[in-house]
Amino acid sequence: MEAFAILLGAGKGTRMKSELPKVLHPVGGIPMIGRLVDKLEAMPITRIVAVIGHRGDLVKSCLGTRVTYAHQENQLGTAHAVLQAERLLYNRSGSTLVLTGDTPLIRQSTIERLLAAQRAQASAGVVLTAIVKDPTGYGRIIRDAASGEVVDIIEEKDATPEQRAINEINTGIFCFDNESLFQALPGITNHNAQGEYYLTDIVKVMRQRGISSGEKRFEAIILEDEAEVMGINTPEQLEEANRAFYEHMGIFA
């Protein structure tokens, strides 16, 4: 069975205070998105699609022909970004990883575990989650109280006080059944506080459309070390990520 990967790298990263696209800032001396491509190339991935936008020419100069490119001209949200890869992956059978281009510390073994979980369960999708002390700013994982199935992911700005108390968060990293992914994407709307098309809404859309049901339910893999997906949105966070990389090179390299 084939496997594909979509890397989200179109954001401007305005809080980095740099003209350089966020995903090109180096961690351990290598651009963030380049580290992810290194790990994916070591796996049996049929096609890697990089979704680019702001200064995409620089991302192309960095990655060259190692990946295929899709363009997101307008920043309308993560679901809209993934949809830009549709022409390259539509109607292909297999599994599709979706990773944010600013998570260079994620281990290859974690990506492999996520892919294996989706395949083993033949699930519509699997989300990588983490249990954190302070979930502020992250989307919360909503599970069915009886079955433990993931039934929704709620962004903080749209969450109720009760939902904000949940400390299981979305890392932004997924693995989908490829055909199920592109069946569900058109059902996502931008009726939320940000007015964006959230990829996280795919969980409830799949349930509503019967794409994830019965044995093909939406699953979750809980990350053991949240440092693998630490947010890198500011120069200070970039410095922290570099510090973590050099302190634990054998883990995050």
Question: What is the topological layout?
Answer:
Layout: E1 2-9, E2 26-27, E3 30-31, H1 32-41, E4 47-52, H2 56-63, E5 68-71, H3 78-83, H4 86-89, E6 94-100, H5 108-121, E7 125-131, E8 140-143, E9 150-154, H6 161-164, E10 168-177, H7 178-184, H8 202-208, E11 219-223, H9 235-247, H10 249-252
Parallel strand pairs: 1-4, 1-6, 4-5, 7-11
Antiparallel strand pairs: 2-3, 6-10, 7-10, 8-9
InterPro entries: GlmU-like, NTP_transferase_dom, Nucleotide-diphossugar_trans
GO molecular function: glucosamine-1-phosphate N-acetyltransferase activity; UDP-N-acetylglucosamine diphosphorylase activity
Protein name: Nucleotidyl transferase domain-containing protein
**Which blocks of ≥5 consecutive residues have pLDDT under 50?**
none
Query: Main sheet: which strands, in order across?
Result: 5-4-1-6-10-7-11
- Overall 3D geometry? globular
* Cα-based radius of gyration, to the nearest Å: 17 Å
Beta-strand percentage range? 15-25%
User: Could you give the distance between the termini?
Assistant: 28 Å
Give the CATH H-level superfamily.
Spore Coat Polysaccharide Biosynthesis Protein SpsA, Chain A
Mean pLDDT score: 94
Report the CATH C-level class. Answer: Alpha Beta
The level of helicity is 25-40%
Largest sheet: 7 strands, mixed
SSE order, one letter for each helix or strand: EEEHEHEHHEHEEEHEHHEHH
Number of helices: 10
Number of strands: 11
CATH level-3 fold name = Spore Coat Polysaccharide Biosynthesis Protein SpsA, Chain A
Number of domains: 1
**Based on the structure given, which CATH architecture is correct?**
Alpha-Beta Complex
What structural class should be given to the helix and strand makeup? Answer: alpha/beta
